[in-house]
Design goal:
alpha+beta; four-stranded mixed beta sheet; Rossmann fold; disordered C terminus; BirA Bifunctional Protein, domain 2; disordered N terminus; 14 helices; eight-stranded mixed beta sheet
């Protein structure tokens, strides 16, 4: 397990708020308001790549994607329990046509309504519904900071509706997706936490079901062979959860990903399915988020990598550096549909300065008269090592394949042959 101190030492030099602005990834403006950052073009590329990755992982895992509105009637959140247990963190209701509507603080009530939009059979379960959706928290100005704590959140959320016999396997599969995503992102959890109910009155539901849910999550963690801390008083108001904790550059710990078992909301929304016996039964909800909010995930990525993102996330994946204007037409013709390529010409400084400026890019290639005459390309890696020159089309195909490697399912077919690069 990576200790909090180790994570803090690794990321001491990378405050995402400072670096994110220096790299022109995101910004803010007083006219938008505190806790409402905007995304600049390079930041939007990283964000979109992250979103596409998560959607693809979910699709391959059997999730079906939905969209739901960011507004809902106050009665919806009264039914779910959010209004009574979470009201202080919600934006005030808006009067609209004799009704009160609010910005949603969570997606789970919306997905419960989607589930109950028609009758369900046990043959459909587990039903996995996923959404990359907006939600809103009325955070106080004093706790807002960069991307880590914001008021408008884009959450990678999903809810699995399943039978009691399926719950443990579904929760275990969700945790496996989280661990796989962290590998692809280059993120190390600070710790795993089993968040349980405490003595406060904020928790709802039957005590026996809470114990059963907690036992299921303990079993999931034990099956995965993960060390964890059991902490009372950190559960959601409706059920216990596994929290995957990360630490920022200042040593502050926060939850990035989560897996929750919920017996309460299916009761509240009277969710049902027809079992093999022809009788009606109550499903269980597994709440899970692979990477949490896009904002907090981006903050963690910036701090962990210092802007040197994994190649599949990098805003520019290959920088082409023509030595002079004579090589510029050749450089401009180098394109590949699956690569983000930028041509950095001599007007932006000396060759040495351009190489230094591109130190965060995963790949760079200097183009001189020899490359133009041979139709070749020699790729320079972040660590300064250089690959042998090969025909341009071969190099581009290899790069596209290399960049996709962390995103492939287990046991992928082998890609095109090309010498393995030096360690980087």
């Amino acid at each position: 397990m990576v200790t909090r101190l180790a994570v803090r030492e690794e990321s001491t030099m990378h405050d995402h708020r400072k670096l994110g602005r220096e790299l022109e990834l995101f910004g803010s403006d007083p006219l938008l308001g505190a806790g409402l950052p905007y995304w600049l073009p390079d930041g939007a590329i990283v964000r979109h790549s992250l979103e596409e990755y998560v959607r693809d992982v979910e699709r391959r895992a059997g999730y079906r994607h939905v969209h739901s509105p960011v507004l809902g009637k106050r009665e919806l959140y009264e039914l779910s329990g959010h209004w009574s247990h979470y009201r202080d963190d919600m934006f005030p209701p808006m009067d609209l046509g004799g009704e009160q509507v609010v910005l949603r603080p969570s997606l789970c009530p919306h997905h419960a309504l989607i589930y109950r939009s028609r009758g369900r059979s046990y043959r459909e379960l587990p039903l996995r519904l996923a959404e990359l959706g907006g939600m809103y928290r009325a955070e106080l100005s004093g706790v807002l900071g960069g991307l880590s704590r914001v008021r408008a959140i884009q959450l990678n959320d999903a809810h699995v509706f399943c039978t009691l016999d399926q719950v443990e396997d579904e929760a275990a599969a969700a945790l496996a997706l989280i661990r796989r995503a962290y590998d692809a992102l280059g993120i190390q959890p600070a710790r795993y936490r089993l968040s349980l109910a405490g003595d406060s009155g904020k928790y709802v539901g039957d005590a026996g079901k809470w114990l059963r849910a907690a036992d299921i999550l303990r079993s999931v963690l034990d099956r995965a062979g993960l060390a964890y801390d059991a902490v009372e008083g950190e559960a959601a108001f409706y059920g216990p959860k596994i929290d995957v904790q990360v630490v920022d550059s200042a040593g502050r710990e926060s939850t990035l990903s989560t897996v929750q078992v919920d017996f309460h909301q299916p009761e509240q929304f009277a969710l049902e399915y027809v079992g093999a016996d022809g009788a009606k039964h109550r499903p269980v909800m597994v709440h899970r988020s692979i990477i949490g909010s896009i904002e907090r995930a981006m903050a963690q990525l910036i701090e962990v990598h210092g802007g040197a993102f994994p190649a599949w996330l990098a805003p520019v994946q290959l920088r082409l550096l023509p030595v002079s204007d004579a090589e510029l037409p050749y450089a401009n013709r180098i394109r590949h549909d699956d690569l983000r390529i930028e041509v950095v010409d001599a007007s932006r400084g000396s060759l040495g300065a351009r190489i230094r400026d591109g130190r965060l890019a995963p790949y760079q290639a200097v183009i001189g008269p020899r490359e133009v005459s041979s139709g070749g390309l020699s790729v320079r890696l972040r660590d300064g090592s250089q690959l042998d020159a090969r025909p341009v089309d071969d190099v581009l195909a290899w790069l596209a394949d290399e960049i996709r490697k962390p995103l492939r399912p287990a046991n992928p077919a082998s890609g095109p042959g090309f010498p393995e690069p030096p360690s980087r």
